[in-house]
Amino acid sequence: MELVMKTKSFRDAEREQTSILAPLERAALRGLARHMPGWVNSDHLSVLGLVGMLGAGACYAASKQNPLMLHLVNLFIFLNWFGDSLDAGNQLVFSSLCARHIQALPMENGPH
After folding, report:
1. Model confidence at 20: pLDDT above 60
2. What is the pLDDT of residues 29-87, one digit of tens each?
3. Looking at residue 89, what is its pLDDT?
4. 68: DSSP letter
5. CA 110/CA 112 separation, integer angstroms
6. Please, what is the end-to-end C-alpha distance for the chain in angstroms?
7. Is 111 exposed, middle or buried (CB count within 10 Å of its CB: 0-12, 13-18, 19+)?
8. How far apart are the C-alpha atoms of 23 and 3, rounded to whole Å?
9. Is 25 exposed, middle or buried (0-12, 13-18, 19+ CB in 10 A)?
10. Which end of the chain has less neighbouring CB within 10 Å, N or C?
């Protein structure tokens, strides 16, 4: 007996930001992405997000012995937000800059 699975084509998930602070977060992310040094890429930001999540988990575990570790959880959650959110924001700014530069390029074989 062979099991056949029907699969649908992949569809990117849409990000919905509906909180009260969403417009402020969006503006902050765009500003941070514009001022990000050129040597920082998506991989760096993903690693920062991962380190933030692992650090938060480690601090939660350590808070059993020392409740003050819960203060460090906030720092690591911020690092996770910064890495993950700015990764997406950086891609958004980069793609819009690329689109502007591509439109500004002269078309060699295009309409004259």
Report:
1. yes
2. 888 878 888 888 888 888 999 999 999 999 999 999 999 999 999 999 999 988 888 87
3. 56
4. T
5. 6
6. 62
7. exposed
8. 47
9. middle
10. N
> In this predicted structure, what is the pLDDT of residue 101?
43
Any idea which residue has 């920062």 for tokens? 48
Secondary structure in 3-state letters for 1-19 = CCCCCCCCCCCCCCCCCCC
> Residue 52: how many CB atoms within 10 A of its CB?
20
CA distance 104 to 99: 9
| Long-range Cβ pairs for the range 96-100 (8 Å, 24+) | none
Both tokens of 66, joined, read: 């020392």
